[in-house]
Amino acid sequence: MVRSPDPKAELTAAFDHRAPYHSHSLGLMQLFLRLALGAKTGFRGAAKALEIVSSLFPTNELAPSPNGGQMWLLRLGLYELSRPKEHADDWVWITDHTIQVGQVKCFLVVGARLSAWEAKRADPDRPAELEHEDLSVWMIEPVEGSDGATVERQLLELSQQTGVVPRELLSDGGSDVQNGIKRFCASHPQTTGRKDVAHAAANIVKHELNDDTSWASFLQEASHAKAKMRQTQLAFLLPPELKAKARWMNLDPLLVWSRKVMAFVATPRPVPGVSLEADELEQQMGWIRRYQEPLAAWSEMLEATATSLSYIREHGYHADAKQELEVELAPFTRGKETPASRVASGLLTFVAGQSSDLPAGQRLLGSSEVLESLIGKSKQLEGQHSKSGFTKMILGAAASVTKLTRQTLQAALAKVKTRHVAQWVQKNLGISVQGQRMHAFAAIPREQNRNNSSPAIL
User: N or C: which end of the chain has fewer CB within 10 A?
Assistant: First the structure.
């Protein structure tokens, strides 16, 4: 996110009608986009906020409409997607598929320079892991099916169109993407394929917990307790939801909840608005005592995982990665065999496989989490539409990586017009699931809808 050195001066400049760009100044456009992209206000919220703030400044400029602001963002996104990228031999392409309702999945490719990442690593005032603004967006291509040949074709076309051959192709390890990367690397020996450590860690944890009968019974009892307590005064003890997708990558909130509840059950404290009977808490949550030892073991296992992920985010894959990570994981691998030691051993084996063939002094990226985060950001921008198939807001992913300066915004709006966005959407997306629904239901006469409705129950 771009940080303004003087927010008040920038806000005043945003409503300066003496520097108009069509019907709105660049400053106002920039402010709207910062609200939409950085403050998660949504387009209506951003428009309303600027309508309120504009009354505080002497200006004739009208606040933007939600639809107008959304189109600025889409034009910015298409500009980022289509702009020429630097020619260099140290590009990393991070790839993944994102899916929504319907048959279509979308293949995303983002890029980062290894030299830029190394510069971040050398700067003590900056985080070593990649952030959205460190990326550039190279491809957003919806397809109805994907296999190795499809991914290879997409990578070949992207390389031919841009004139760039990447140094590294990083993915989550999905079979179709991995197959396509392998085929691309066979014809481009200067490119190496690597797998993301976070997904590898999730698979290792999944394997460990799938073989643990205590874990299955713990989940069952937690689910049962949640159903019983949802509408009771003990609702403040409800466990967090586990996402159906990639739930092995977000276990920490559940284990944190478990430790807090166990401490509360052991030493209950007064809670405002709650009047507990002597045995009520024990009846509802006493079962968690049986998992004291397993919970400690599972927490240690996730700590080993977090240690490994933190190391690879900062240091990447390199010739000494396994040896250095062994030192970091030593507290988990000493002594008797535990879930943490088995997970740590599995991660050390994985890291060795990804890094042992690298020459001394060479370092590659090992985490694609920044792309996962970017996909999440695009779904947040889509809002409820993310449940109705891909829409034009997929371009929001590209807009989210831009450094939102006035120069960039001016170049984007000069280069990309509204018709270009419409043409891109028509060519790449066609009609969305929501659009199909509207067409289907619009053809049903209102009278027929009433006749087909369920009869009232008297």
Answer: C
